[in-house]
Structures are given as C-alpha cells and as structure tokens.
Amino acid sequence: MEKDEIIRLLELFRYKENDRPGLNNYLDVTWNSNKYVATTTPHHFIIIKKSIYEFTPSGFLNLSAHIPSPNCEVEISVNEIINKVSQIRLVEVEQECECSYCSGTGEVKEGFYSSYCRNCDGYGFVGNGQYETIIDEEVRIKIRDSLFNNGFIAKLLEVCQATNSKNIFLIHQKDERVNLFKINNEILIGIMPMRPAKDEEFVTIDLKNPASA
Ligand SMILES: [Zn+2]
Known about the structure:
The chain is α+β, with helices and mostly antiparallel strands. 15% of the residues lie in helices and 37% in strands.
C-alpha cells in the first residue's frame, strides 16, 4: 500500500473532536510482539503493522493494553458482508445546516438570560430542504454473537477494499466488549458492538466456518 493510502485508512479511525486530545494522535502499539501504528476513537480502532510503513507516533496513549488476545478464528467472506449490507433498506434523510437564528449554539439571548432557540428547538441545526439517500443506520449488522452499527462495518469494508482482501477473520469476541478483526495479517480493526435492544432490526453475516466458531 502507498503511504497516502495508509494515512487515509488511519484517518478513517482517528478521533477528530477536541474533547479527548489523547485520542487525536497516531499511536504506537505493541501486540503479539509486533510493532504497529494505530488510530482510535472510543468506539473503534485500526492498527497497521510497521513492516508496511514506519510511522513516528505523536501520542502516548497506551492502546496496547486495550487490544484483547485472540480467542477465536472465524473466517468471513468480504463478498458476504457487501451482499448483506446491500440488502439494508435505504432511507431519505434531510441534510442539515447551521441554524441562522442562534448560529448553531441552540441558545438565544433575551436580555440578561439566554433561552433555547425555538427555531431549531435548541439543537443548533435545521433541515435545509435537500435530501440524500443513505443506508438506514437503525439497522444493525450481526456477526456471530455481536451486533454492530452499520457505519462501522462500512469502514471495515473500506479497509478490505483498500487491501484487496477477499476474506477476513474475527479473532476475538467475548461478552459486549471490543471485537477484533484481522485483515491480511497486517491490519487489525477493533469495533465495539452495540448493546442489544428489544425488537432491534439486523442482517446476519453468514460465517465461512461456523462449526469452528
Ligand atoms: Zn437555533
């Protein structure tokens, strides 16, 4: 992979808000005696072997401590994931823009006090009348025992496509903690599952070796 492509993948998983500066950086990770470069958010991470690209880390968060040891080896076809994602219904959602009454703050000054903005109900954003078609984000994706946000699985697919991977492996899954996926023996992706809710809608990914799962 080219350097630009590796950076693109790292950026997909890097935290970009300002409230947790420790998560904004490229991180050093040691896992199974190998050196990796990583980016993370509170919900997912990517770690890429340094044999592909030597990267100087800029942060000191000890992500290594949060990466679990393998406890399974479940093979999953990338085409199966693409096929199931394509079955999720599409929905039209209105695009949003900043509320012009409160400049996106959700509050308006009334004399000495401020009160919530009635134009946007205190949300700060309003619909702009333009619609886009997206996969319904309420529909989960089930892999073995875990349910995932489909946007996170879309990122996993982007990494599969960037590495031309036909199959990936789920190598850790336990309780409702982070699931670990191995791609090409060079990249690991961790994704937090959703807490299952009642009557939740989901599509199920068929596993290639369910007997050994
Ligand atoms: Zn407003």
